[in-house]
Amino acid sequence: MRMIVRGVPLAMALVLTGCSHFDAEPGGWYGRLVGDAPTTVVSRKDDEWQSIPAQPARDWSRQKVVEVSYDAPVEETYTLDTGDTLRIFVYGQQNLSRLYTVDARGSIMVPLLGVVRVRGLTTSALAARIRARLGSQYVRDPHVTVDIHENRPFFILGEVRQPGKYPYVHGITIEMAVAIAGGYTPRASERRVRVSRAGRNGPEMLEGGPNFLVRPGDTITIQ
Question: What is the DSSP string of 8-66?
C-alpha cells in the first residue's frame, strides 16, 4: 500500500530514521530519503501534493518516503545589449553618475572615457571595466556600481491580437507574452512558436512552448 506522509508524520520520520539525498528526476526534481525502502514518493508543486514514481537502487523490504520539490530552470546570466538603460554611479563624481542607454553599436558614451563598449558584458563586468579605465588616468581608487534601470524590450509578432514591442518583465514566459499582446488569434498555433535571439555569432532561431523563458530583445513569432 502506498502512503503519502505530510507535516508532522514526515518530520517524525525524518527524526527517527534519518535522511539522505535522493534524485527522483534529473534536471529539476530533488528530494530527501526517509527510511530505507524505495516505494513511496510525494511531491509538492503548485501547493498540491501528488505522487511521482521512484526507482529503487536495491531491493529493500520496507517502505521509504521521499519528500520532493521542483526547481524551475535557472535563467542564464543577463548580458547587456542595445536598448538597455543603465544607472551608473561613481562615488564622488556627479558628472559621471547618471543614466546611460546602450546605443545601436552596443556602447555608451561616458564623460572623460568617451565610448565604452558594453555589449555582451554583465553589470559587474562593466563596473570593473569603467573602474579600471577611470583608475588608470582620472580618479584614484574609484568606486563604481552599475545597475539595470530598464531592460531592453521584447517583440512579439504573428498570430496575436496586438503584435508589437513590449517592456520586458523578469521571468516572463511565451504564454505571458502572448497574454500581454492580447492573446492568440483564431488562426494561431500554440505549438508553432519561434524565438529569434541575439547570439555571439548573430541571431539564433529557437523553438519554445508556453513555458519557454523570454529574454530582453527576443523576437517571438506566433504562427
Answer: HHHHHHHHHH-EEEEEEETTTEEEEEEES---EEEEEETTEEEE-----SS--SS-EEE
Please give the DSSP secondary-structure letter assigned to residue 69: E
| CA distances for 207 relative to 65, 80, 167, 204, angstroms | 38, 23, 21, 10
Number of H helices, E strands in the chain: 3, 15
Q: In this structure, what C-alpha cell is assigned to residue 61?
A: 523490504
Give the three cell numbers for residue 148: 539595470
Ramachandran region of residue 149, left (φ > 0), alpha (ψ -120 to 50) or beta? alpha
Are 152 and 217 within 8 A, CB to CB? yes
To the question of pTM greater than 0.85 for the whole model, the response is no
DSSP conformation letters of 183-206: -B-TT--TT-EEEEEEETTEEEEE
pLDDT in tens, the chain (223 residues): 444 444 444 444 444 444 433 333 344 433 444 444 443 444 444 444 444 444 444 444 444 444 443 334 445 678 899 999 999 999 999 999 999 999 999 999 999 999 999 998 999 999 999 999 999 989 889 999 999 999 999 999 999 999 999 999 888 999 999 999 999 999 988 777 899 998 777 788 998 888 999 999 999 999 8
Rounded CA separation 25/202 (Å):
35
